[in-house]
Amino acid sequence: MTLHHDEIPVDESLVRTLLKAQRPEWADLPLSVAGSGTDNTMFRLGDDLLVRLPRTPDKELSVRKEREWLPRLAPRLTVAVPEPVYAGTPTPAFPLTWSVYRWIDGVEPGPDTVREWAAFGTDLAAFVRDLHSTDLLGATRTGDLSGYRGGDLRPCDQSVSGYFEDCRGTVGATLDVQTLERLWRDALTLPGPSGPHVWLHSDLKPTNLLVQDGRLHAVIDFGGLSVGFPDAEHATVWDLPAQARQAYWDSLDLDDLTWTRARAWAIAVGISGLAYYWSTYPAFVAECQARLRAILDDAATR
């Protein structure tokens, strides 16, 4: 399944070809699809490895970024994060950098895997606190560490406004786009973020979290790693049940301004995903719709 106009298709045969050319000792290990996101395709390799390949040329920098920073951040964090073990080089068949990581056992958080949602929200808050308090190690908000989710909402308004219009033509009356747009515009009138820049994961949605024994065990996919203001980091809590969301808020003691800006970021990412992937990625569209409905339900009670 391709999602982007400039995507490079990947299948098991291609991965085998890359391994035979660059890591022949791994080429005959069992290989199976291990999931695919909007930016990467993954294959489990044997029992202990994961092959990760960017879908498009612009995501190649994310692969390089993970290899540079994850080994330096991992010792400072209290949950498991991906461990790069090999840097794959471009070939004529796949002209992008790719990576092999150590496999991390775990399952996606959900009603059948999380023992208690309030504890899970507290666990996620603890990870965010650790990451945001980690020394920047000389990193600054420049180059590939200057992701838009670490900045102000206002520069995104033009594109987000266009996505609201697109969604009116697709979801119709099944989603209250008008209220979502009002919440977005209300947030634009607030003071911008302030304070020191911090490390940001930038995409802490459930598919990037792994659970073991009912508790948060690992955080994966640091392709969006950046340095900036933390507001957007909190946006994905609307992908979790209300108990987890409340425990996360309480644990980090977030103020109302930060929470409102985080909600606006959640709306922006949800509405853009809904518009961009409407006809290509139904599962991700469903995730976006669930997030936006959670935002509407939450806003109606506050």
From TrEMBL:
One GO molecular function term of this record is: transferase activity
Q: Does the keyword Transferase apply?
A: yes
Task: Give the top-rank taxon of the lineage listed in the UniProt record for this protein.
Answer: Bacteria
| Pfam families (alphabetical) | APH (PF01636)
Q: What broad class of enzyme is this?
A: transferase
Q: Which UniProt keywords apply?
A: Transferase
- EC number(s) on record? 2.7.-.-
The UniProt record lists the Aminoglycoside phosphotransferase domain at 33-264
Q: What is this protein called?
A: Aminoglycoside phosphotransferase family protein
